[in-house]
Amino acid sequence: MFKHSKKERNFIYPIDEKKISLYVSIPFCPTRCLYCSFPSNSLADFGHLKSVYVDKLIEEVKAVSILIKNTDKEIETLYIGGGTPTTLSAEEMDKLINALFSELDLSKILEFTVEAGRPDTITREKLEVLKKHNVSRISINPQTMNDDTLVKIGREHKVEEIRECFYMARKMGFDNINMDIILGLIDEDLEMVRNTLEEIKKLSPESLTVHTMAIKRASNLKINMDKYKDKLTHDKEVIKMIDLSMKYAYEMGLSPYYMYRQKHMVGNLENIGYAKVGYECIYNIQVMEEKQSNYALGAGSISKFVYNDENRIERVENVKNVEHYIDRVEEMTHRKEKEVHKNANKSS
């Protein structure tokens, strides 16, 4: 269906077993979105833990840096995701990124992404921190450009705030901005999706990630399905939305470069990443194709250790609960060390 596979090959092959990608989880959000199943903790309930969380995360960074050095691995891409990383204050973000660069060898990274995510967490001071540390790619994720839907999915910001954040980032020199949208949100029809795409077309981001809504077990949507089942978009309508988003992507000069499916997606449809030439997200490609190990740090993150010669992938999970992570961070690093050493001993 798409000519994305050829683009992916250019980033994946030849496979270099030395190279890894690094993910850092910031599991806080201003509010929890209706459809969200990620490890995100509202600032109202968990915001007081942010500072100590950053300190504990830096402890994990230090321990994993030793593991990376001792096994002669090279970090190719760095991705700070969540949750919403920009729930951290400018000072907390600066402290974390300083630690990443002082503890790890990031001299050869091809890409540094931070999910700026929600506009109600983005400030000039935070963007200045990201700019200072040469973050090469940010995401400003509206999910929809319809104010009514933003209220229904639990977001406490307006469409105008999304525009303001986007233009502020542009003026500050960010020249690789991704935007995410979700098709099939409650009560949205084709014309509302068209409005979202028209608004994004005016902004002209370097990449657009089009998600089809997945009804995840841990989401409030799934838990309260009786309340929402009549508000969900029918499969045939979602297919029209996908076709419309593809049309707009091409009009914006964006081409598909990766595609993946999630469990419980409406109509078993797919998520598609579109990008301008030269702005494809290397991290996304590597994570989806699973030919490169991904070391993941922080609460709720899942490391994937890829053994291409055995066609095998081992997942090593960090605990999801933020308070448990803070208390057990040493155990999280030991889990990774155990996996790496187990396989090193096997091959020696």
What does this structure look like?
By secondary structure, this protein is of the alpha/beta class. The protein contains 14 helices and 13 strands. The strands form 3 sheets. A 9-stranded mixed β-sheet has the order 9-10-8-7-6-5-4-1-11, sandwiched between helices. Strands 2-3 form a two-stranded parallel ribbon. It has a two-stranded antiparallel sheet with strand order 12-13. Helix 5 links the parallel strand 5 and strand 6. Helix 3 runs parallel beside helix 4, helix 3 packs parallel to helix 14 and helix 8 packs parallel to helix 11. 42% of the residues are buried. The N terminus is likely disordered.
Short synopsis of the structure:
The chain is of the alpha/beta class and 348 residues long. It has helices at 4-12, 43-46, 50-70, 90-103, 124-132, 147-152, 159-171, 190-203, 220-223, 225-228, 235-251, 282-289, 322-327, 329-347, and strands at residues 19-26, 28-29, 41-42, 74-82, 111-117, 137-140, 177-183, 207-212, 255-260, 271-275, 294-297, 302-307, 312-317.
